[in-house]
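wait is this the right file?? whatever heres the structure
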């Protein structure tokens, strides 16, 4: 009798584990879809990149140093691309700073 009870317990635990693994796979799939949708929702404009490159070239020719004060939206772990959602000017200034010094604003 004890062996049958243990066998049922193992089967039950196996079914629970298999079910939770399926749920976790579904959750991971849903999370990946959500992240993909967020990335695709961000605008990208080649025209804007041309404006940015033009700005950087002109500022470099004039010898204008970049704005040293980080944007008010600047956070640890950010890159210039993260600032695009807040302000074109912040994105532009960050990009020029990064081009000029070779690293991002300090935190």
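ok assuming it is, sequence goes like this
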């Amino acid at each position: 009798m004890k062996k049958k009870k243990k066998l049922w317990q193992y089967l039950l635990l196996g079914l629970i584990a298999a079910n939770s693994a399926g749920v976790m796979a579904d959750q991971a799939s849903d999370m990946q879809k959500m992240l993909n949708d967020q990335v695709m929702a961000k605008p990208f404009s080649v025209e804007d990149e041309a404006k940015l490159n033009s700005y950087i070239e002109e500022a470099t020719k004039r010898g204008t140093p970049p704005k040293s004060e980080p944007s008010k939206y600047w956070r640890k772990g950010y890159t210039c691309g993260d600032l695009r959602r807040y302000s074109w000017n912040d994105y532009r200034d960050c990009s020029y700073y990064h081009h000029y010094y070779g690293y991002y604003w300090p935190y």
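The first helix runs from residue 2 to 41. so i think its the right one actually
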